[in-house]
Amino acid sequence: MKKVAVVLSGCGVFDGAEIHESVLTLLRLEQQGASYQCMAPNIDQLHVIDHLKGEVAQGESRNVLVEAARIARGEIIDLATANPADYDALIIPGGFGAAKNLSDFAVKGPDCHVNPDLLAFAQAIHQANKPVGLICIAPAMTPLLFGEGATCTIGTDQETAAAIEAMGGQHTNCLVDDIVIDEQRKLITTPAYMLAGSIIEAASGINKLVDEVLKRT
Protein backbone atom coordinates (compact mmCIF):
# COMPACT_ATOMS: atom_id res chain seq x y z
CA MET A 1 0.00 0.00 0.00
CA LYS A 2 1.30 3.43 -0.93
CA LYS A 3 2.01 5.67 2.07
CA VAL A 4 1.80 9.45 1.80
CA ALA A 5 3.18 12.04 4.19
CA VAL A 6 0.66 14.85 4.81
CA VAL A 7 2.20 17.93 6.42
CA LEU A 8 -0.25 20.09 8.35
CA SER A 9 0.35 23.63 9.60
CA GLY A 10 -2.05 23.91 12.53
CA CYS A 11 -5.85 23.89 12.54
CA GLY A 12 -7.95 26.60 10.92
CA VAL A 13 -7.82 28.55 7.67
CA PHE A 14 -6.55 31.86 9.07
CA ASP A 15 -3.68 30.61 11.25
CA GLY A 16 -3.18 26.93 10.42
CA ALA A 17 -4.07 24.18 7.96
CA GLU A 18 -7.34 24.66 6.03
CA ILE A 19 -9.55 22.02 7.57
CA HIS A 20 -11.67 21.23 4.51
CA GLU A 21 -8.59 20.93 2.28
CA SER A 22 -6.88 18.69 4.80
CA VAL A 23 -9.86 16.37 5.27
CA LEU A 24 -10.58 16.22 1.52
CA THR A 25 -6.95 15.19 0.97
CA LEU A 26 -7.11 12.42 3.58
CA LEU A 27 -10.48 11.21 2.26
CA ARG A 28 -9.26 10.99 -1.33
CA LEU A 29 -6.11 9.15 -0.30
CA GLU A 30 -8.20 6.51 1.46
CA GLN A 31 -10.68 6.30 -1.42
CA GLN A 32 -7.75 5.56 -3.75
CA GLY A 33 -6.41 2.80 -1.50
CA ALA A 34 -3.45 4.69 -0.06
CA SER A 35 -2.47 5.19 3.56
CA TYR A 36 -1.15 8.39 5.09
CA GLN A 37 0.71 9.79 8.07
CA CYS A 38 -0.07 13.30 9.24
CA MET A 39 2.86 15.33 10.60
CA ALA A 40 3.56 18.91 11.62
CA PRO A 41 6.43 20.94 13.03
CA ASN A 42 6.56 21.21 16.83
CA ILE A 43 6.69 25.03 16.89
CA ASP A 44 4.54 27.94 18.05
CA GLN A 45 2.14 29.48 15.56
CA LEU A 46 2.94 32.94 14.23
CA HIS A 47 -0.20 34.11 16.04
CA VAL A 48 -3.69 32.93 16.92
CA ILE A 49 -6.72 34.14 14.94
CA ASP A 50 -10.21 34.18 16.46
CA HIS A 51 -12.02 32.51 13.55
CA LEU A 52 -15.38 33.89 14.72
CA LYS A 53 -14.26 37.52 14.70
CA GLY A 54 -11.46 37.24 12.14
CA GLU A 55 -9.12 39.08 14.49
CA VAL A 56 -5.82 38.29 16.20
CA ALA A 57 -6.48 36.83 19.66
CA GLN A 58 -4.16 39.00 21.72
CA GLY A 59 -2.15 37.21 24.39
CA GLU A 60 -2.92 33.71 23.08
CA SER A 61 -0.36 31.23 21.76
CA ARG A 62 -0.80 27.80 20.23
CA ASN A 63 1.49 25.01 19.08
CA VAL A 64 1.33 23.94 15.43
CA LEU A 65 1.72 20.21 16.17
CA VAL A 66 -0.84 20.25 19.00
CA GLU A 67 -3.38 22.12 16.89
CA ALA A 68 -2.79 19.93 13.79
CA ALA A 69 -3.46 16.89 15.99
CA ARG A 70 -7.11 18.01 16.07
CA ILE A 71 -7.45 17.35 12.33
CA ALA A 72 -5.49 14.09 12.55
CA ARG A 73 -7.59 12.82 15.50
CA GLY A 74 -4.36 12.56 17.48
CA GLU A 75 -2.66 10.31 14.91
CA ILE A 76 0.21 12.65 14.11
CA ILE A 77 3.98 12.84 14.49
CA ASP A 78 6.55 15.60 14.84
CA LEU A 79 7.84 16.48 11.38
CA ALA A 80 11.39 16.58 12.75
CA THR A 81 11.20 12.85 13.53
CA ALA A 82 9.75 11.76 10.18
CA ASN A 83 11.92 9.61 7.89
CA PRO A 84 11.41 10.53 4.21
CA ALA A 85 12.39 6.98 3.22
CA ASP A 86 9.17 5.70 4.85
CA TYR A 87 6.92 7.55 2.38
CA ASP A 88 6.06 7.32 -1.30
CA ALA A 89 4.88 10.93 -1.67
CA LEU A 90 4.25 14.22 0.12
CA ILE A 91 1.15 16.42 0.14
CA ILE A 92 0.83 19.80 1.87
CA PRO A 93 -2.70 21.22 2.23
CA GLY A 94 -3.17 24.99 2.31
CA GLY A 95 -4.53 27.46 4.81
CA PHE A 96 -2.62 30.50 6.01
CA GLY A 97 -0.56 28.20 8.25
CA ALA A 98 1.46 27.28 5.15
CA ALA A 99 2.38 30.96 4.79
CA LYS A 100 2.62 31.76 8.51
CA ASN A 101 3.95 28.62 10.21
CA LEU A 102 5.54 26.38 7.56
CA SER A 103 7.06 29.54 6.06
CA ASP A 104 6.95 33.29 6.69
CA PHE A 105 5.61 34.10 3.21
CA ALA A 106 2.61 35.95 4.70
CA VAL A 107 4.99 38.37 6.43
CA LYS A 108 7.99 38.58 4.12
CA GLY A 109 6.64 37.68 0.67
CA PRO A 110 9.48 36.94 -1.79
CA ASP A 111 12.07 37.35 1.01
CA CYS A 112 10.55 34.47 2.99
CA HIS A 113 12.13 31.33 4.41
CA VAL A 114 10.73 27.82 4.89
CA ASN A 115 10.73 25.95 8.19
CA PRO A 116 14.01 23.97 8.21
CA ASP A 117 12.38 20.65 9.11
CA LEU A 118 9.96 20.99 6.21
CA LEU A 119 12.74 22.05 3.87
CA ALA A 120 14.86 19.01 4.74
CA PHE A 121 11.92 16.59 4.51
CA ALA A 122 10.49 17.95 1.25
CA GLN A 123 13.87 18.09 -0.46
CA ALA A 124 14.67 14.52 0.61
CA ILE A 125 11.35 13.35 -0.88
CA HIS A 126 12.07 15.31 -4.06
CA GLN A 127 15.64 14.07 -4.40
CA ALA A 128 14.35 10.50 -4.13
CA ASN A 129 12.21 11.24 -7.24
CA LYS A 130 8.96 10.95 -5.28
CA PRO A 131 5.96 13.16 -6.16
CA VAL A 132 4.81 16.17 -4.16
CA GLY A 133 1.39 17.86 -4.10
CA LEU A 134 0.87 21.41 -2.84
CA ILE A 135 -2.59 22.92 -2.31
CA CYS A 136 -3.98 26.48 -2.11
CA ILE A 137 -1.31 28.92 -0.82
CA ALA A 138 1.23 26.13 -0.06
CA PRO A 139 2.63 26.35 -3.65
CA ALA A 140 4.06 29.77 -2.71
CA MET A 141 6.89 27.75 -1.14
CA THR A 142 7.63 25.99 -4.44
CA PRO A 143 10.81 27.87 -5.50
CA LEU A 144 12.34 27.51 -2.03
CA LEU A 145 11.52 23.81 -1.82
CA PHE A 146 12.23 22.70 -5.39
CA GLY A 147 14.47 25.30 -6.97
CA GLU A 148 14.46 27.93 -9.64
CA GLY A 149 12.18 27.28 -12.58
CA ALA A 150 9.79 25.00 -10.69
CA THR A 151 6.26 25.39 -12.09
CA CYS A 152 3.20 25.75 -9.86
CA THR A 153 -0.14 27.51 -9.39
CA ILE A 154 -2.00 29.35 -6.66
CA GLY A 155 -4.88 30.08 -9.03
CA THR A 156 -5.10 33.56 -10.54
CA ASP A 157 -3.99 35.99 -7.82
CA GLN A 158 -1.53 38.29 -9.59
CA GLU A 159 0.24 39.57 -6.48
CA THR A 160 0.98 36.10 -5.11
CA ALA A 161 1.97 34.85 -8.57
CA ALA A 162 4.40 37.77 -8.92
CA ALA A 163 5.97 36.93 -5.56
CA ILE A 164 6.47 33.31 -6.66
CA GLU A 165 8.15 34.46 -9.86
CA ALA A 166 10.32 36.92 -7.91
CA MET A 167 11.61 33.91 -5.95
CA GLY A 168 12.47 32.10 -9.19
CA GLY A 169 9.36 30.01 -9.67
CA GLN A 170 7.17 29.75 -12.76
CA HIS A 171 3.51 30.48 -12.08
CA THR A 172 0.70 29.18 -14.29
CA ASN A 173 -2.86 30.48 -13.90
CA CYS A 174 -5.30 27.68 -13.11
CA LEU A 175 -9.04 27.23 -12.55
CA VAL A 176 -10.36 25.84 -9.27
CA ASP A 177 -11.20 22.43 -10.75
CA ASP A 178 -7.83 21.91 -12.39
CA ILE A 179 -4.19 21.21 -11.54
CA VAL A 180 -0.78 22.26 -12.80
CA ILE A 181 1.88 19.58 -13.22
CA ASP A 182 5.63 20.10 -13.35
CA GLU A 183 6.46 16.77 -14.96
CA GLN A 184 10.22 17.11 -14.54
CA ARG A 185 9.92 17.64 -10.80
CA LYS A 186 6.85 15.44 -10.20
CA LEU A 187 5.19 18.47 -8.63
CA ILE A 188 1.40 18.88 -8.70
CA THR A 189 -0.42 22.01 -7.49
CA THR A 190 -4.06 23.18 -7.35
CA PRO A 191 -5.75 26.42 -6.19
CA ALA A 192 -8.49 24.96 -3.92
CA TYR A 193 -9.69 27.74 -1.59
CA MET A 194 -7.56 30.36 -3.31
CA LEU A 195 -10.51 30.24 -5.73
CA ALA A 196 -13.11 27.80 -4.37
CA GLY A 197 -16.49 29.13 -3.32
CA SER A 198 -17.63 25.82 -1.86
CA ILE A 199 -16.29 22.55 -0.48
CA ILE A 200 -17.39 20.81 -3.70
CA GLU A 201 -15.28 23.22 -5.77
CA ALA A 202 -12.31 22.68 -3.48
CA ALA A 203 -12.71 18.91 -3.81
CA SER A 204 -12.73 19.04 -7.62
CA GLY A 205 -9.10 20.12 -7.82
CA ILE A 206 -7.87 18.32 -4.71
CA ASN A 207 -9.18 14.96 -5.97
CA LYS A 208 -7.31 15.45 -9.24
CA LEU A 209 -4.15 16.40 -7.36
CA VAL A 210 -4.25 13.35 -5.09
CA ASP A 211 -4.92 11.06 -8.05
CA GLU A 212 -1.96 12.49 -10.00
CA VAL A 213 0.36 12.28 -6.99
CA LEU A 214 -0.52 8.61 -6.47
CA LYS A 215 -0.16 7.87 -10.19
CA ARG A 216 3.45 8.98 -9.98
CA THR A 217 4.44 6.92 -6.92
TrEMBL record:
Residues 14-178 form the DJ-1/PfpI domain. InterPro entries: Class_I_gatase-like, DJ-1/PfpI, ElbB. SUPFAM superfamilies: Class I glutamine amidotransferase-like. It catalyses: glyoxal + H2O = glycolate + H(+). It comes from the Bacteria. Belongs to the peptidase C56 family. Displays glyoxalase activity, catalyzing the conversion of glyoxal to glycolate. This is Glyoxalase. One of its GO terms (molecular function) is lyase activity. Transmembrane segments: none annotated. Keywords: Lyase. The keyword Lyase applies. PANTHER family: ES1 PROTEIN HOMOLOG, MITOCHONDRIAL, GLYOXALASE ELBB.
